[in-house]
């Protein structure tokens, strides 16, 4: 039977988390075949990985770790130990499962080269610093920590340990968005005038998720993706921040947060960036980017499962947009992990740095403050 890792992984993504054993058996077989073809007689051990957290992001990273022939998932650290054990059992893995209180067992494993942190943000500081102190490289879901001071502590620890610390903002690794960045770098668009992003979730987050989204709410939890993307594309830091929002969903309003946001960032060059966000769009996961400049425009359109459209007497019909971020940014998640593996192997340099992480959170905090004040506020980044 002939199959590819991509086709098997895509099939797995369409199945419920705990009903994929046959598919994952095929994945492991594919991984072994790829490893034999790639390495030949090379018996160099695979890169050892410990993963913290089996939530939405943790499951995505687990899928990518398991299908990467270079990686060996040796430990899963999860508060809900029964969940972790069931996860490992259904995938027929030899991975050891433990709770966070026992994480020293994983961090003292000499075969662990890096850890993936996909736990709630409030736990990041402890896990990241402990991992770095144990001489493990760290791949951390955004943001690295809850505050700017904590982010600085994490990067200070990384510098002392001499190990890479990566804040995972996957959109930079999306092929379409990366192509727009190249258009900017080559001067194809010319001097930038306007950047627009539209980011609307296809399904509202749970009440518990909202209550644990941090003191900056939607700005620090969700808008940070667009803020990071805009600042990266712009190549400069904003000088003025204006944000306004409203809560249309009752439980989000009760939590003191908003679900619909408009953000305007003005940059020293005169560039204006506009971010349009919503927690819920009934028609699918709406993700668009537009960069306009003196020489033209580059656009990233929405992605759909198929490009088939149907015309009839009632009009034009087509598929819904991609359902949510695991499918829309499937390739981006894979590429950011591959990038970090190359960094750990010493083959390349990190593409995301300390100042990137600090800038993104500081702009998010400024957005939250602007929304509270109901006015634009100046922004300074030292």
What does this structure look like?
- The chain has 382 residues and is of the alpha/beta class.
- It folds into two domains: 5-119, Rossmann fold; 172-378, Dihydrodipicolinate Reductase, domain 2, CATH 3.30.360.10.
- The protein contains 14 helices and 15 strands.
- Strands 12-11-7-10-9-8-15 form a seven-stranded mixed β-sheet. A six-stranded parallel β-sheet has the order 3-2-1-4-5-6, with helices on both faces.
- Strand 4, helix 6 and strand 5 form a beta-alpha-beta unit.
- Helix 1 (5-13) runs antiparallel to helix 2 and helix 7 (148-161) packs antiparallel against helix 14.
- The chain is globular and about 55 Å long.
- The N and C termini lie far apart (58 Å).
Instruction: Assign a percent range to the helix content.
Output: 40-55%
Q: How many domain modules?
A: 2
Query: Shape from CA axes?
Result: globular
Helix tally equals 14
Biggest sheet descriptor: 7 strands, mixed
Sheet-strand content, in percent, reads: 15-25%
Low-confidence spans: 1-9, 11-42
Structural class: alpha/beta
Q: And the CATH topology of the largest domain?
A: Dihydrodipicolinate Reductase, domain 2
Assign the CATH architecture of the largest domain.
2-Layer Sandwich
CATH class of the largest domain: Alpha Beta
Number of strands: 15
Q: How confident overall, as mean pLDDT?
A: 88
Radius of gyration: 21 Å
Give the distance, in angstroms, between the N- and C-terminal Cα atoms: 58 Å
Which superfamily, in CATH terms, is the homologous superfamily of the largest domain?
A: Dihydrodipicolinate Reductase, domain 2
Strand order of the largest sheet: 12-11-7-10-9-8-15
Query: Topology as H/E string?
Result: HHEHEHEHEHEHEHEHHEHEEEEEEHHHE
